[in-house]
Every structure is written in C-alpha cells, then in structure tokens.
Write a structure and sequence with these properties.
The chain is mainly alpha-helical and 188 residues long. It has one domain. Helix content is 77%, strand content 0%.
Length: 188
C-alpha cells in the first residue's frame, strides 16, 4: 500500500517532473563530459519536490548505468596513482555517511543538503576568483581529506564531484586524464 501511495504521488505531482527531469539531464551531461561536477545540483533540485532519500533512490539506478558507461569509456586514461591516494579517505567518508544517513532525520538531511550545496557554491566562487590555481604535487594528507569529503558527499547526496575537483584541479592533470580520473574514482 505504501509503495502504491509513493508511486501515485510521484506520477501526479507536476513539481516532481518540473524539477526532476532537468536534474537528471544536468547530471547526465555533467557525468558525460564534465567529470560529474554539475551533478551537485541533482539531489538538491529534486529534494525541493520530494524527500532527499526518495530523490537519491530515484537517481541511483540512473547513476549506476552512467557510471558503468563512464568507467568503461575512461578507464584507460585515469590517473590511478591519484585514485590510490584518495581511496582510503573516500572509503572512510562513505562509511561515515552511511552511519550519518541512518541516524539523521529527514529535516537534518535537508539541512545537510542545503549546507553542502552552499559550500559547493562558495567553493566555485572561490576557485573562480583565483586567476589560476597554484600547481600542486600529489599529497597524501590532502588526498585523504578531499577523498573523505568526496566519499561523504557522494554517498549522502550523490555530489562527490565538488570535493574531488578541489583536490584534482590543482594537480593540473590534462583534460582527458582529469575527466577520466573523476569518472573512475567517483563510483568507488
């Protein structure tokens, strides 16, 4: 009965379609050629019409298919040394996000989505103010920190592209390697 009520509310609510379709299209375009960065808009947009957990659940099958295609296409060009540095922090972030999602009420999750979205906007504005980010060498501490934030935000709201790019952009990877590294790392 509950599943039937959920299905009815999604099918008849025009706000769901008005916000959900652009969210999915933005995520698809971002995942296909921009390393996933625009994907930070998908869950927050959909969460305006439905609960964040419903938005994440609806997006998950679509994201899995997109990730499989992206990894299949880009796996040869990814920088695996960068991925190895970021992976331990990311796995820890995924675990913490899993616990967080289990204990946090829906209102707290909506607040978290709002805060993370604002932080990603501030990150974008901060990066834009800098004429060119300083070149950086791979650093295990930074990789672990940004990997943790990537794992947490990717698990909580399917938006790991922002924190991952904060670590990857200063490394000045070539464009193909950057997109490939994002595509291979984010499904981890």
């Amino acid at each position: 009965m509950e599943f039937n009520a959920l299905t009815q509310s999604l099918v008849t609510d025009p706000w769901f379609y008005l916000l959900g379709i652009p969210a999915i299209l933005i995520y698809g375009v971002g995942k296909g050629g921009l390393g996933g960065a625009p994907g930070i808009l998908a869950v927050p947009l959909m969460a305006l019409a439905i609960s964040p957990t419903q938005a994440a659940a609806i997006l998950l099958p679509i994201l899995i298919v997109m990730d499989v295609v992206a990894v299949r296409y880009h796996f040869r060009n990814a920088d695996y040394s960068v991925i190895k540095r970021m992976l331990p922090g990311s796995l820890f972030g995924i675990a913490i996000a899993g616990i967080y999602l289990y204990v946090i009420p829906i209102a707290g999750l909506k607040l978290s989505i709002g805060v993370l979205s604002l932080l990603f906007c501030l990150q974008y504005l901060w990066q834009r103010r800098q004429s060119s980010p300083p070149s950086d060498k791979p650093n295990t501490v930074k990789a672990t920190f940004w990997g943790f934030l990537t794992g947490f935000s990717s698990t909580a709201i399917h938006a790991g592209g922002g924190p991952a790019s904060m670590y990857l952009i200063p490394l000045r990877l070539d464009k193909l390697s950057f997109v490939a590294t994002m595509a291979v790392f984010l499904p981890c």
